[in-house]
Amino acid sequence: xxxxxxxxxxxxxxxLLGIFRWFPPQILxxxxxxxxxxxxxxxxxxxxxNDPNSFRQFRSxxxxxxxxPLMTILxxxxxxxxxxxxxxxxxLANCLAVGSGxxxxxxxxxxxxxxxxxxxxxxxxxxxxxxxVMTLLLAPWMVKYFGKLAPISAGGATTMxxxxxxxxxxxxxxxxxxxxYQGFVVDFxxxxxxxxxxxx
Amino acid sequence: MFIVIAFMLAxxxxxxxxxxxxxxxxxxxxxxxxxxxxxxxxxEVGANNTVIQQFGxxxxxxxxxxxxxxxxxxxxxxxxxxxFRSKTDER
Lengths: 200, 91
Description:
Helix content of chain A: over 70%
Distance between the termini of chain A: 34 Å
Number of strands of chain B: 0
Helix content of chain B: over 70%
Oligomer: heterodimer
Strand content of chain A: under 5%
Number of domains of chain B: 2
Order of helices and strands of chain B: HHHH
Mean pLDDT of chain B: 86
Structural class of chain B: mainly alpha
Shape of chain A: globular
Order of helices and strands of chain A: HHHHHHHHHHH
Largest sheet of chain A: none
Number of helices of chain B: 4
Distance between the termini of chain B: 50 Å
Largest sheet of chain B: none
Radius of gyration of chain A: 18 Å
Structural class of chain A: mainly alpha
Number of domains of chain A: 2
Largest interface: A-B, 100 and 73 residues
Number of strands of chain A: 0
Low-confidence stretches of chain B: none
């Protein structure tokens, strides 16, 4: 929670400076953020490739639970498809691009801003923050009515870091490995799915 | 836009090649870059009058999409949970 507040405060600071025009206008015109984004993606890649546990620690997993990330992705798409009729100004592909953040608001909003502009980028940021907050707040209720896998699915890409403690508390220690596995897989799909839906 | 993905794949390859050396500073670097980019995103949003005027509407659309996505995934996880339960009960 503290980490997300820090991230949000960076966005808010930028927002205020932007509203009052307290910055040199060249920053935005040089497409500076694209180069930072490339550096970020390179670093994210290094962190995945450099961790030997990335691919090994999932052998003890129940075979059925291997499908949980797939259920998360398909369920999200179906839910987003259902509400896309209410979001009249956005195409289905744009809605799915936002949904493909799976709570990973920093990366998804940055990518979507780069591909589709600030408007959809802002929606992606807010929407994915909301998904994370919903998971944090509603986890006990999800377990009660939809079983112990529900908050793991709701947490999407965040279940190996930000929402991990809440999930372990509500679903139990037995689901810690599932939570890490699902977070790892969904996290990895975010840049691919977001890029895919933005290119449609 | 696939340039971005190419950068990530190149990163994975580099990280894998140097897997004997633990690149410890990488997580700190990622966090710093994320802070910088969200600051820049804020700047861009703040400087864009049309987005600022529509902020409430964008927030509402964001809320709809978040609710749809979360609820859909919860229901699908429930389906997997039910099939999982019935299998373990049979034993």
